[in-house]
Amino acid sequence: xxxxxxxxxxxxxxxxxxxxxxxxxxxxxxxxxxxxxxxxxxxxxxxxxxxxxxxxxxxxxxxxxxxxxxxxxxxxxxxxxxxxxxxxxxxxxxxxxxxxxxxxxxxxxxxxxxxxxxxxxxxxxxxxxxxx
Length: 132
Fold this sequence. Notes:
By secondary structure, the chain is of the alpha+beta class. The chain is built from 4 helices and 5 strands; from the N terminus they run ββαβββααα. The chain has a 3-stranded antiparallel beta sheet. Strand 3 and strand 4 (44-48) form a beta hairpin. Helix 2 packs antiparallel against helix 4 (101-122). 11% of the residues are buried.
């Protein structure tokens, strides 16, 4: 997952790749503050975990879109012989339900990405107690 922060010198958005899915996991793996080097101005900016944020993944959005755009016509062409060859209404309804598979896959991928982003961005570490 990529987390982002704005450079304190030039305002450029910097990214850092981590495998933590929440701020707590990030703080455990990386510490409560992270120093990131700006690619634009070369300055080192130190961010607390609460100053970092994440955005929806473009790869997940593209993948979900491709599944939807390619999968729906593909399912229709695979199921079309059943539609034309059967006379039972129930079998048509049952086989027609398979057309929803790409739609459901698209919805699941987008929902998981939204959950990932909101889990990281919503929960902050402020107010933690340290070794009392």
